[in-house]
Amino acid sequence: MRIKWSLLLILAALIFGFLVNQKNQNKVMENNESSTTKTSVDSTTAFDSDDHLEHHPVNKPLAKKNKQKPTRLQLILEEIESRIFSDDPYVEVYSLQSSMGLCKDLDKLGDIFTFYHNYTHPKQQQTIDAYQEQCQKLQSKYPILISQDRKQQLTTFTPHSKLGLLLEKTGKEFSHMTELERNELGAAVLTEAIREENSAVLMYSSFTYRYNRPMMSQLTHVLNSQDLNYVGQISQLTIAKMACQFQQGMACEPTSELMLIICAQQPNSCGLTFDQWYQNNTLPGMKSDVETMMTYLLSTAL
Amino acid sequence: MKKGFVFLLLIVIILALWWIYQSSLEAQKKQSTSPNVVSFVAAESQTTKSEIRKKPTQPKQSEPSSEITTTIHFSDKTITDSELSYLDVYRMTRQFESCQNVIYRLQEEDSFDPVASFKKRTQHLQALYPDFPTPTQISAVTQHANQCEQLLNTVQSLDLPDLDTSDGKTYAPMYQLKRRLKKYLLSLQPKSPKERAIAEVLNLIVNWQKHYKQVLVISTGEEETNKVEIEALKEQLSLLRNEQLEFSQQHHDSSDSVDLSRIGEILIEIEKLEKQVFELKLVNPEAREQAIEAFETVNELLFTQLKSRDPDVFYEAQKTLELNTRNYRDFGYFPYKDHGGKKLKVPFVEYVSPGDVIKDILGFDDNESFGLVINYATQLYHCELGADCGPEGNWTPFYCHLGYDNLLETACQHDLPTFYRDYFLNQNQWQDVQMVLDIIRGLYAN
User: Fold this and answer.
1) Of residues B250 and B188, more confidently modeled
2) Which of A2, A229, A269 sits opposite B365 (nearest CB)?
3) For residue B61, which of A220, B178, B392, B427 sits 20 to 30 Å off, Cα-Cα?
4) Confidence (pTM)
5) Is residue A100 very low, low, confident or very high in pLDDT (cuts 50, 70, 90)?
């Protein structure tokens, strides 16, 4: 468990570090247009690295706008032209970063598997190989997003969706907030992630909920249990299960970061989807409580 | 007239029987509340297997702690060594486990205030629950501290043996005292069957730990084959560590004058050399296999002790086999087993603990989900064996005031099964726990 806790905390720390360190947000430009589909970019407002505020009109290829060498912003926008998570570029970049964070430093991937032991199980090695292969594909699809400094990534964009604004607030103000404010913000992020059906942010939220005692204590009434550890675990399982329903279950594939972390500690679970793992590792009462929690969390997002 | 006499005689006999029955009840009650007395369960531990199977799944209702307590409460009178039985001293070692934080503070601090310390430790809960801590919890803290202080005084008054300090290791006074008390217990002669059963498992544990350690030593790898290279690397490591120490000292004296990048370089170099030393160590597979075989023999004997109907024997065997070093936590499954971890060339992954066996039966792979049921189920099984599970017993104080989270007043007022079933777990959890408890009964009680 300590291994799992430690690894989860490291992952959470990476995400937090990534957000908390994104300081020096410069100029903001409001985007009054909001799109309804996630697969096309109707309008994008962004802050260019050259200190130019640009408004890119609908459906105009960015690289063609001027014949100069494309800026970092333009390159990123091209990479995320086909959206997976959100029409808000801020949320899209955030979500992609969250779901492929371990691809950034593949040399360190083995460290997760040898955190306590100096050996890697053959099943674990198979998963590492599959993950590396997946990273190579992502590398060719998102060369800028993967290669560039994660701290600087989000400063390029200004969020225009509610979820984006909440994520930005988390990154900017989290370290100055009281515990109560942090928890309120965490709950708001979760609710909005459910509404937006964003699996990457949901996974991030699931870690927040797992180890946050004050947040747990507010959910004890849902399960009618005073066991905070249990409420935390059920909450995390519920949110992860919910995340599996979105983006074609990419957050729960055997090579997702969640399953990679699980595989690092549980070699017999390597190669499973989250749902398969969930079926093996929960008892009937737990499954029933996950359904109860699912109903409750969905009702809060209505 | 004759009929009347017979009737009168019958009434007298009934009254006499009633009086005898009442007297025996009183005697039983007195026995269970008197200090330094063996668990009330001794009689229950004689229960036959068929009777155990008939035991209802639902636990009995809450009983007042005074009736079932096995906690030793010393009176003010001086207890001499000769007055203490093996069981008395064994109880002291168990009480020491729950008291060790208080004893540590009593020995290290001039004026230890248990209530202030408790409030400081649970500030996070006060922020969450306005009524926390309740007077009941404060009272339990005070009572616990008093009992621990009494225990400390008693243990200090005993003629305890000295520790072997030839290995150069030093321990804080509390740990010294704990180890000396354990050594003292092992030197005593058990007399009653229960004492002999406890002594048997404790001696077996010493043997088990010796064999377990032997597997780890062999799994660490030997340095003899590549002695020259390893010694050269160790010399370089020694120089680097000295340099690191000097830098740290300089940084401590004046942080401006130190080149921090050099410290970083040193640390990277140390890590590299340590890895080289590690690679050069070799494990003899045959010797390792032999060590594991020798361990297995003792391991099987200790596993058999899990079937004991004595709660103390079960407790000692379970805790040891689960490699649980934490007191009053993770009884059932200890998830932090690393079997030597990174220090070993080949970790002892072959080892299967009692918790692992149950995890396999359930088909679980995840320690966290498994941890949500196994510890409760094992504690409840311990209660069924007759362990003290009252409000001041083995487990509830952890939820009343000894723990860090999940501290509830109801834990100070009820026995463990009642607390879990009615105040702590929900119905789904309780059912899951019962499912695991059935597996445990099937493994150990049949």
Assistant:
1) B188
2) A269
3) A220
4) 0.78
5) confident
Instruction: Give B280: exposed, middle or buried? Use CB within 10 Å, 0-12, 13-18, 19+.
Output: middle
Residue A171 has pLDDT above 80, yes or no: yes
Q: How confident is the model at residue A99 (pLDDT cuts 50, 70, 90)?
A: confident
Residue range A20-61, pLDDT digits in tens: 333 333 333 333 333 333 444 433 444 443 333 333 333 444
User: Which chain B residues contact residue A270 at CB under 8 A?
Assistant: none
Give how far Cα B130 sits from Cα of A212, A226, B126, Å: 18, 16, 6
Instruction: Please report residues of B whose CB lies closer than 8 A to that of A119.
Output: 346-347
Task: Check whether the bond before B190 is cis (ω within 30° of 0).
Answer: no
Distance from CA of B403 to the nearest CA of A (A): 13
Render pLDDT for B77-114 as a digit per residue (tens, 0 to 9): 445 566 789 999 999 999 999 999 999 999 999 899 99
Mean pLDDT check: name the lowest of A163-177, A187-201, B329-343, B412-426. B329-343
If contacts are CB pairs under 8 Å, which of residues 225-284 in chain B contact chain A? 278
Interface test mutation site (partner B, options A116, A180, A230, max chain B beta carbons within 10 A):
A230
SS3 of chain A: CHHHHHHHHHHHHHHHHHHHCCCCCCCCCCCCCCCCCCCCCCCEEEECCCCCEEEECCCCCHHHHCCCCCCHHHHHHHHCCCCCCCCCHHHHHHHHHHHCHHHHHHHHHHHHHCCCCCCCCHHHHHHHHHHHHHHHHHHHHCHHHHHCCHHHHHHHECCCCHHHHHHHHHHHHHHHCCHHHHHHHHHHHHHHHHHHCCHHHHHHHHHHHHCCHHHHHCCHHHHCCCCHHHHHHHHHHHHHHHHCCCHHHHHHCCCCHHHHHHHHHCHHHCCCCHHHHHHHCCCHHHHHHHHHHHHHHHHHHC
In the predicted structure, residue B363 carries a pLDDT above the cut 50: yes
Residues 11-40 of A with CB under 8 A from B: none
| Residues on chain A touching B405 (C-beta within 8 angstroms) | 213, 228-229
A258 and B CB contact within 8 Å: no
Contacts of B408 in chain A (CB under 8 A): 226
Task: Answer yes or no: do A117 and B341 touch at CB < 8 A.
Answer: yes
Please give, rounded to a whole number of angstroms, the shortest distance from the CA of B165 to a CA of chain A. 31
Residues of chain A positioned with their CB less than 8 A from the CB of B431? 284-285
Q: From B376, which residue of chain A is nearest by alpha-carbon distance?
A: A227
Residue range B149-198, pLDDT digits in tens: 999 999 999 999 998 888 788 889 999 999 999 999 999 999 999 999 99
